[in-house]
Amino acid sequence: MKSLNFFLAALMLITGQVIAAEQERWYSDEQVTQGEQLFRQNCSSCHGQNAEATPNWKQTDANGNYPPPPLNGSAHAWHHNLDLLRRTIRDGGAKLGGQMPGFEGSLSAAEIDSVIAFFQSKWSDEIYERWSGRFASSDLPSLTDSAVAPEPPVTRLLRQRIGNAKIDDVSETSVEDVWQVQIGNRYVYLLEGGKYALMGDLVNLENGRNLTEQSRRVSAVETISEFDDADLVIFAARGEPKATLNVFTDTSCPYCQKLHSEIDQLQEAGITVRYFPYARGGSRGPGYQHLRSVWCAEDRRQAMTDAKNKLFDDLPPGDCAAAEMVDRGYLVGNRIGISGTPALFKSNGEKIEGYRPYQELIPQILQ
User: Fold this and answer.
1) β-strands 243-249, 233-235: how paired?
2) Which residues make Cβ contacts (< 8 Å) with residue 23, sequence separation at least 6?
3) Beta-bridge partners for 248
4) Can you tell me the distance from the alpha carbon of 167 to that of 157, in angstroms, rounded to the nearest whole number?
5) Rounded CA Rg of the chain
6) Which helix (H) or strand (E) holds 334?
7) More confident of the two residues 192 and 215
8) Residue 217 within any structural domain of the chain
9) 352: which strand partners?
10) Out of 82, 100, 261, 275, which could bridge 233 as a Cys pair, Cβ 3.0 to 4.6 Å?
11) Domain check: are 113 and 156 in the same one?
C-alpha cells in the first residue's frame, strides 16, 4: 500500500505543469459596459462607484463586523476562483462570514458575469495574471450548470471521512484532473473526481516549484492583511523602510525574547517588525495574561519590551477591549499552521521557522 501511495505521489509530481500566467482576459468589452451599470445600481453603495470601497475597510465596526472590502484588486477577491465569485454574488456573503445579501432573484447568471467583468477590469495586469495563474477560469462551471450545488459532492465525501473540520472551496490546480482543498491548515489533493485524497506537498519536478507552498503563502498574506497596524505592536524601520517582518510572538518564549533583544538591529536595517500575539497553549498558556496586558498598555512597544525582559510590575491589567486581539491572534495563527514561536512571515507570505540570529535573518528578509 505504501508503494502504491508513493507511486501516485510521484505520478502527480512528474506530470505537473504550470499554466502560463499571461493570457487574455475572459470577458468582453460589452460585458464590462453592462457590468458597470449593474454594479453601480446594485453594488456601489457598499463597494464604491469604482469598486474601491472605503479606506477603513480592514477595521471592524462597533458590532465587530468588517465593512465591504474593495473589489478593485486591492483586497482579496483575486484569491477566489470565478465560480466562487459567482456563487458569492448569487447567494450572498453569509457563508464567508460577511453581511452581503444574495442577488439570485435580481441578477441573472449572465448579469452576474458582467458585474464580475466590471470589477475585474479594475484589476492591474499583475493582479489579473496572478489570479488567472491560480485558476483555469475557462473550465469553471457556470451558474446555469446544474452540477453547481451549495455543497459539492466531493465536499460531502470529505466531510463524511474527516468530520466537522473547516473545508474550504475546492480549487483546480495546474496539474490535470488534480484538485486542491484546504482542510484547516492542511492541503489535500483530490484525484479521480474526488475518489482519492492525497495529503502532502505537490511539487513540479521540472522547475522545483512547490505548488502547495505557494498556496500556503497566499493564505498567509491574505490572513495577515486582515490586520491593521492599530491591531498590532509595531517597531518601525529606521531610515528608509526596506521590508516588513510579521512575527507571531509569546512573551514567555525564550527565543521570542532573544529575537526581541535584537530588534534594534532589524530596525536599523530598514525592517519594520509587526508583532502578532500568539499565546502558546491558548488561554491557559504561560504568556497569555502578559500578552493581554501588553495589548492594553498605552505604550505597547515599551510594554512588549518590559514583558520580554520579565519586567511585569508596570504592566496594566489585561482587561481592556484591545486584549481580545490575543485570542484572535491565537486563532489566526492556528489557521495558517503556526505550531511554535517565534513564527516569522515575510511580506510575500514566506515563513521563516523559529529564531534566527540577526546576522542571518536580515539578509534572508531583504533578499
Assistant:
1) unpaired
2) 129, 132
3) 276, 343
4) 11
5) 22
6) helix 324-335
7) 215
8) no
9) 344
10) 275
11) no
